[in-house]
Design brief:
The complex is a heterotrimer. Chain A contains 17 helices and 22 strands. Chain A is an alpha/beta fold. The longest helix of chain A has 16 residues. Chain A is globular, with a radius of gyration of 25 Å. Chain C is mostly helical. Chain C contains 14 helices and two strands, in the order H-H-H-H-H-H-H-E-E-H-H-H-H-H-H-H. Chain C has a two-stranded antiparallel sheet. The chains are: A alpha/beta, B mainly alpha, C mainly alpha. Chains in contact: A-B, A-C, B-C. At the B-C interface, helix 6, helix 12 and helix 14 of B face helix 6, helix 12 and helix 14 of C.
């Protein structure tokens, strides 16, 4: 019988009068992995931030072992044995692994009055910690030269080095390749065996079911389900998260694709990136592109949209070739592109929602008086687009994109492109980092667009959603298309095997 | 094979400051062989000492993604104060000590506005630059001061190396050790990389940033004194626009204006010497004085251009090589 | 009942503090505070003086606003002012100028001045947009180069003997409206319309917010950035016309000292150094504030050096107010 190492009782927190956590209680036992799931805005981050010392609870208690746990800052929480590994890792890319490990507490020696860092000591200690997580990189390697998976391992090693008893992992697999994910799971198993407890937060419900011992489900700041994983199925988790049973995860497709070709790619190649890409996209078709991270899907999308160049082959949009490396031209000819990373390339995060929505179509609002924007018309159109995607936002003009949830932010990006009425829409991981409810909205919009005749390229790492939404699926690996599958032939295992086949990277 | 060509390109770009330095050096040497005389080389070091010391302090500030536009005024103020004391008969050591104290104090004032009142470094140092210059002009009444006694100090040698070069070397070595091998130095790099993350990691960012501006003030004062001891003259134009030369030297040496990247040695040291080499070279080939800013700005432009190309190329090469086997 | 009065005045204070026109109110407040000590401050002649000093500074500050909104900076404006002045004077001067004596002298001279500003601006913009070099360093080097160039061309000499028609621009008027005011007003209006109502203007804001996202969204980033710097160069050249006309000489070191004033004016007005935020109107207020400081300190008969010290302190104070305001606004 493992004992309780962390206990939260009736933790409550509000921001500006809006309650975010309501009487949340949870128990974490030694050597067990607790999975916490919930939609965006359910309170997961706030709860973890309280445990991790970033925020303080308004009321309720948190007990760590025998004592009360109320850290004033992250460093204090770290010292008390709780390591919070964020999605955006807290490593300094311009410093070495060893320096990152000891950044807050360097061992020093005095030479000529100067407190110098004891380099050999930190190097040796670091090597030992890296070995304990199976990471074979040099202690002197710069973090910027490591892959996301390696960096995550460094964070975990750092936590171990600080004798952390509890490790909180927040969306850890978002940037990992399949192999790195497997390695992470292996480390989690091993640590669990050593008596370390973990809290695992993820939108990937399948991973949570597989990996965790206990599950806690939050909705609207309240605990709506908890218990050992044996008590949960995927459907039960989703219905608890969303508050209603979801009859289907995906909307049924309302129309069939026509035979007309709207985008044609012939032997497209860019040395080192993609090789001999050939496919057609039809009007009203949703064409999925599956493959592991690093297989070249995003690179292909960027080449299609004119953000990167290509050396050989042709791209024909509505029959006419695309020649220049220019997104401007693509947009003019009717293409739209929802990028993988909405914060970096999809949104103007500090601008108003309506400025964001109107951005692509600005020239079209300036036709009457050349160059001058017809503001009322622009605002009306933005309002219509926001309604079409069912955007939840109190004021389009006064709210900035920053204040919206992930799902609503993605809707803003969609609304922006919908204003242009594209004939081809490339979506790169459109449901990444958004909750179940918002995901359904995105699928619905995709279906509506397809019904109107838009050709959609749907890139995703989740095979289930591709199988649920697409008419055909292309599987990419190593920059090439391995297979094209029609809906009737959909086979999850085959897709997976194709994606893995060539991708045996060291 | 593309990879080998890629490697050569990368090597050139990574070591651009050094290669540029060699090119400029070689160029002047061919134009006038006497350029390579030891006496001339030592002279270049002497002349670059003042701005090199100031640029070293500037490097600390730039590493935290800050900026210090007041260093020119700090140079002026400390030199003016020292000059006034010496002209009034005070011992040189006292005058120098006061000057250093002024530099540290000035830097602390900058630091206070930046860290406690949280005003942008650009604005703070732009304002104190102005006020400081006014104060210095007030002290000197816009008149030049001649201090022949100091030139003796400035041109004396220890072990056949002129005193200014010793100062330059000492400051550079000390700064290098502090930046690379002390916790304080590593914290500076961390803050430049991710200021929020540094705070979360438990680093006292307020204290580190405060000290960084004090260091800059200190180096500016030392640079002012070295300048003073070399020329023995305080003119109303002392230090005018020298902050730009200091920033240029640091950037030429590889320091990024965005913080987190850059070294004092070889970096800033080389940058300062490079700029001086260009100027000395122009004197050697007897070019008109008017040409100096033209050539200097051209060299700096070229160096920054090469750095930008390096940055772009690095991004391209780092993009995941999806089909490495194919390019073989 | 008694509680409603303090609440209302507090609300008024808050509205004033957080208003967009804050710097305007600050200027008025400052004016009223200094007036008792220097009564001549409010004399019509002095007010006119403030006004005419404002105008050239305003012109160049407007151009700087464009550039700052793109999250860039243009340090070369002072050298543009100097070089434009030299080129224009070389064309117009009756003392051996290129077109001396001809009717075309003045229009051609002005055209050359404006073209200089635009050309240097295009150079800056191209290096920044296409060669991807950092704005601070690019404009720093062009500043060094072109101010050195101006000094080299003229051998540090000023060029006098400018035609009366040109000098008239500095002092003459159309009816009651002085030429400089007309020029500055037209420039300010055009800039305001461009920035706030045109597609290019919105593109400039978008680039300041997030250049990568702007590019994906079809904004022609390179062309727009080049435009912003060309506009800055053009505005600096207009300022040069006004300064040169007023001084009646082509001066290779014209404008050297006003870089601080330009940047301080724009930033105190409220434009952010990080891009995405700024307005021409705010810059007008900022320039008013700076000019008022300068003028009032001279009126109070402070020595030249004391003025420098006080000005530095005042700018710092205004920046402090701005930082405080932003923090209070964010906390709301």
């Amino acid at each position: 019988m493992s004992d309780t190492i962390l206990e939260c009782r009736n933790v409550t927190k509000s921001f500006f009068g809006v309650p975010v956590l309501r009487n949340v209680s949870l128990t974490l036992k030694a050597g067990r992995v607790l999975g916490i799931v919930g939609e965006n805005g359910a309170g997961k981050s706030t709860l973890m931030n309280i445990l991790g010392g970033v925020l303080r609870a308004d009321s309720g208690s948190v007990r760590l072992g025998e004592r009360d746990h109320a850290p004033q800052n992250p460093a204090e929480a770290f010292r008390e044995g709780i390591a919070f590994i964020h999605q955006e890792l807290n490593l300094f890319t311009n410093l070495s692994v060893a320096e990152n490990m000891f950044i807050a507490a360097f061992p020093k020696m005095r030479i000529v009055g100067l407190p110098l860092i004891r380099r050999r000591a930190i190097r040796e200690k670091t090597q030992a910690l890296l070995a304990s997580v199976d990471l074979h990189v040099s202690a002197e390697a710069l973090v910027e030269d490591l892959s996301p998976g390696e960096r995550q391992m460094v964070e975990i090693a750092k936590a171990l080095g600080a004798d952390a008893r509890i490790i909180i992992l927040d969306e850890p697999t978002t940037s990992l390749s399949s192999r790195e994910t497997q390695r992470l799971f292996g480390i989690i198993h091993r640590l669990r065996g050593q008596g370390i407890s973990m809290i695992y937060i993820s939108h990937n419900l399948g991973d949570v079911l597989r990996l965790c011992d206990d599950i806690l489900i939050l909705r609207d700041g309240r605990v709506v389900g908890e218990g050992p994983k044996e008590e949960f199925t995927l459907e039960r988790m989703i219905s608890l998260m969303v508050g209603r049973s979801m009859d289907q995860l995906y909307p049924s497709r309302s129309a069939r694709p026509s035979g007309e070709i709207v985008l044609e790619v012939k032997s497209l190649s860019q040395p080192g990136i993609v090789e001999n890409i050939t496919f057609q996209l039809h009007k009203g078709e949703i064409l999925g592109i599956s493959g592991l991270m690093g297989s070249g899907r995003t690179e292909l999308a960027r080449i299609l949209f004119g953000l990167d160049a290509f050396e050989h082959g042709e791209i024909l949009l509505n029959g006419e070739p695309l020649t220049r490396c220019s997104p401007h031209e693509r947009i003019h000819r009717g293409m739209a592109f929802l990028t993988e990373d909405r914060r970096a390339e999809g949104l103007l995060i500090n601008a108003s929602v309506e400025d964001n929505i109107a951005l692509v179509s600005l020239p079209s609002f300036a036709r009457a008086l050349p160059g001058l924007v017809n503001r009322p018309e622009m605002l009306r159109a933005a309002g219509r687009a926001a309604k079409a995607v069912r955007l939840q936002c109190s004021s389009l003009s006064r709210q900035t994109a920053k204040t919206l949830s992930g799902g609503n932010q993605q809707k803003v990006v969609l609304a922006k492109w919908l204003l242009e009425k594209p004939s081809v829409f490339v979506l790169d991981e459109p449901t990444r980092g958004i909750d179940v409810g918002a995901k359904f909205e995105v699928y619905r919009i995709m279906d509506e667009l397809a019904a109107k005749g838009v050709g959609i390229v749907f890139i995703s790492s989740e095979i289930e959603e591709l199988m649920g939404m697409c008419d055909r699926i292309l599987v990419m690996a190593y920059g090439e298309i391995r297979r094209c599958m029609a809906r009737t032939q959909f086979d999850k295992e085959k897709i997976f095997r194709d994606a893995l086949m060539e991708n045996q990277l060291p | 094979m593309t990879t080998r060509k890629g490697n050569i390109v990368l090597f050139v770009l990574n070591n651009a400051p050094l290669i540029l330095f060699a090119a400029v050096f070689g160029g002047f040497a061919t134009l006038s062989p006497k350029f390579l005389a030891v006496e001339n080389l030592v002279n270049i070091l002497v002349q670059s000492a003042s701005i090199g010391i100031v640029a070293t302090g500037m490097t600390f500030v730039l590493l935290t993604a800050g900026i210090d536009l007041s260093v020119g005024s700090i140079m002026f103020l400390s030199a003016a104060a020292a000059g006034k004391l010496i002209a009034g008969g005070q011992p040189v050591s006292l005058a120098f000590a006061v000057a250093i104290a002024i530099g540290v104090g000035y830097g602390a004032i900058n630091a206070f506005f930046i860290t406690r009142l949280k005003i942008l470094p650009f604005i703070v140092t732009l304002s104190t630059q102005f006020a400081g210059r006014g104060l210095s002009l007030l002290i000197t009444q816009t008149r030049a001061m001649n201090l022949p006694r100091l030139v003796e100090v400035g041109s004396s040698k220890i072990l056949r190396i002129p005193v200014p070069v010793w100062w330059f070397g000492a400051v550079v070595v000390f700064a290098h050790v502090v930046l690379m091998k002390t916790a304080f130095g590593r914290h500076i790099y961390a803050i430049g990389n991710d200021a929020e993350g540094a705070k979360k990691a438990g680093i006292n960012t307020t204290r580190v940033v405060f000290l960084v501006y004090v260091v800059s003030g200190l180096c500016a004062a030392i640079g002012g004194l070295v300048y003073l001891s070399r020329l023995g003259l305080v003119s109303p134009k002392l230090g005018l626009q020298r902050e730009f030369a200091a920033i240029a030297a640091a950037v030429l040496g590889g320091t990024s204006l965005f913080g987190g990247r850059g070294k004092v040695f070889p970096g800033t040291f080389l940058g300062a010497v490079l700029i001086q080499t260009v100027e000395s070279g122009l004197v050697f080939i007897k070019a008109s004085e008017y040409v100096y800013p033209l050539v200097t700005s051209f060299v700096i432009f070229f160096a920054v251009f090469v750095d930008s190309v390096r940055h772009v190329k690095l991004q391209q090469l780092k993009r995941r090589r999806i089909r490495v086997a194919a390019t073989g | 009942m008694t509680s409603s009065v303090p609440v209302r005045s507090r609300a008024v204070w808050r509205r004033l503090l957080f208003s967009e026109h804050f710097v305007l109110y600050l200027s008025v407040l400052y004016f009223l505070a200094v007036w008792p000590f220097a009564p001549r401050l409010a004399s019509p002649r002095n007010l006119l003086d403030i006004f005419s000093n404002m105008l050239p500074l305003l012109s160049v500050a407007i151009g700087q606003t464009f550039v700052l909104v793109t999250a860039g900076i243009d340090l070369s404006v002072t050298s543009i002012i100097a070089l434009s002045s030299v080129f224009g004077a070389s064309v117009m001067t009756s003392d051996g100028g290129l077109l001396s004596g001809s009717i075309l002298a003045v229009p051609a001279g002005i055209a050359v001045m404006l073209a200089t500003g635009v050309a240097i601006g295009l150079l800056n913009g191209t290096a920044i947009a296409r060669l991807r070099m950092p704005p601070f360093m690019v404009t720093l080097t062009t500043m060094m180069f072109f101010s050195g160039f101006a000094v080299w061309l003229t051998g540090s000499q000023k060029i006098s003997g400018l035609p009366r028609a040109f000098v008239g621009l500095g002092v003459g008027s159309v009816g009651f409206i002085p030429y400089p005011f007309l020029i500055a007003a037209v420039l300010a209006t055009a800039a305001h319309v461009t920035l706030s109502r045109t597609v290019v203007g919105r593109w400039i804001y978008a680039i300041g917010h997030n250049a990568r996202a702007a590019r994906v969204s079809g904004v022609p980033v390179n062309r727009t950035v080049v435009f912003a710097y060309a506009a800055s160069g053009f505005c600096a050249a207009v300022a040069s016309v006004l300064y040169t006309a007023r001084l009646e000489t082509g001066d290779p070191v014209l404008g050297q000292r006003i870089l601080l004033d330009i940047i301080a004016a724009v930033v105190i007005g409220g434009t952010s150094l990080f891009g995405g935020k700024g307005k021409v109107l705010w810059t007008v207020f900022g320039v008013l504030f700076i000019t008022l400081i300068d003028n009032s300190l001279i009126m109070l008969e402070f020595s030249h050096f004391t003025i420098m010290i006080v000005k530095g302190a005042v700018i710092l104070f205004a920046a402090l107010m701005d930082a405080l305001r932003n923090r209070l606004l964010a906390a709301q």
